[in-house]
Amino acid sequence: MRLxxxxxxxxxxxxxxxxxxxxxxxxxxxxxxxDHFENVKRAVLTGRYSEVAEALGPSFAGRAELITESxxxxxxxxxxxxxxxxxTLQRVESPSYLQDVSLFFDEERGGFVGVYLAATxxxxxxxxxxxxxxxxxxxxxxxxx
Length: 145
What we know:
The chain is α+β, with helices and mostly antiparallel strands. The chain has a single domain (2-142), classed as Nuclear Transport Factor 2, Chain: A (Roll), CATH 3.10.450. The protein is 32% helix and 32% strand. The chain has 6 helices and 5 strands, in the order βαααααββββα. Strands 1-2-3-4-5 form a 5-stranded antiparallel beta sheet. The radius of gyration is 14 Å and the shape is globular. It starts with a strand and ends with a helix.
């Protein structure tokens, strides 16, 4: 089991540098990069919430409408997305389970949201199996097992 929790100094560094990083959105240098997660984070960061379900990949195809509907409040309150983001926790469980919590900050409004993503390895590929977004970080962190 590997548990990576960023120190406050690393967290601030990520906040200051994440806006310029395009290859790996919201990532810490020790984070595992998963394409589906990166695409979801990019969609949330830029306020393109309608792209989240597609970014999660085929494993979420049957839930696309539900995901899009659940993101409607974020389109209202954060229509332009966020100024910056940071991966604050990533947990990898051997042999094939990964959890990721990222925070997205809106400096103008002074708000943030937390995004929880989980994936498992199937046929050598990371496949998303869980997505959750909320303005209450404690609820997001409750998803981490």
